[in-house]
Amino acid sequence: MLGDYRITGRRASDIAASIENGVASGALPPDRLLPPMRELAVELGVNANTVAAAYRTLRERGVIRTDGRRGSRVLARPATTPRDAMRTAVPADVRDLTQGNPDLTLLPSLDGPLRAAALRYAQAPPLYGEAPVVADLERLAREGFARDGVRADAIAVTSGAADGIERVLAAHLRPGDAVAVEDPGWSSVLDLVPAMGFTPIPVAVDDEGPRPEAVAHALAAGARALIVTARAQNPTGAAVSAARAGRLRELLAEHPGVLVVDDDHGHGIVDLPLHPVGGTTHHWALIRSTAKAYGPDLRLAVLTGDAVTLDRVRGRQRLGPGWVSRLLQYAVVELWSSGAVDASAVAGAYGRRRDGLIAALAARGVAAHGRSGMNVWIPVGDETAVVTRLLAAGWGVTAGARFRVESGSGVRITISGLAPAEVEPLADAVAAAVRPVAGGRFD
User: Fold this and answer.
1) Which of 151, 182, 184, 104 has the alpha carbon at shortest distance from 416?
2) CA distances, 294 to each of 107, 119, 168, 339 (Å)
3) What is the pLDDT of residues 15-31, one digit of tens each?
């Protein structure tokens, strides 16, 4: 069953470590069936409960899945092999369009905001026991949510969108619970969900966001949570439309116990209106990060949601990091107060690059997607071949495997730094490398 690999250990922690080492080394590859608990207990000379505890630990870490009588298997992409390890290696002489970073020229200078934050800090150094959210930041966050029609009775601050998503999921779910995730979708979420011990249920998306029939299927399959990217979806550029949000809210109203998480990481770089999906179920959260508009190292996100969710997130945060640095909070207050980023101008800059590339590809018979944000998604027949051909032609793009569960193959091109003069030659290279895949879906 395990080939030459031998599981060892007498304690549950040692048995779990032995299996995890086998997974990390590749000796126990994805989908490998592990021995039945009683069988392994006999082999190791330990109580079956000890092996059961080891398997439970591995399940909670996202290393294995257990499916009743079908046994326990190594997850296809366990936490020990994150999707970031699937990055394309881009030679120095190749134009790198793989990184997913914002255009540095569109980011505001942080010199002034950080100096102002340091001055404010010096005048009244924050101490233990103070409110975790700076009052000015809470006010500005509430005002921002209100402009988008979102009632924000409570505000929490986390270290970025992924941190916020993790804390919201942990506030309500237990290992083994199913979470509906976009497919294709953000690789960090696709890694995070199994790493937390949850079972991902892929939900197909199109240009308007998660497809209603796919969400309905996930809900019928027992999904306890749904994660939706509101705008600038990574990797497809999808943005939830008003009609799509309305239909999804109707579906969710029939499942009031489902936790809904809206990720608005594109705030500040998009000019499409926000259409959140949460709010019709008992528990929901909307997370808005600063990384794309102000810089990836500004690790801060504000979130709102129902009272229970916010209370649990803030309560657990107090027992861990306590709060997000008030220096960072002060800096964001300065940025938001000064209007340092013109969202319309930034969205326009990215939009011209996206639309220009999509139009150039269409003129060459290549279908591509990118309704908002910094990325263009191109469905392809063989993404490995396409990536290889483009590398040979001097262009580095990202293979879609990093972002997929069950959806069809594709490649992602980050257009944030694309110069106008590069659009036509890039489109020529893509057209030469790609066999067009028709249709408006990504499966």
Assistant:
1) 104
2) 5, 20, 24, 11
3) 999 999 998 888 999 88
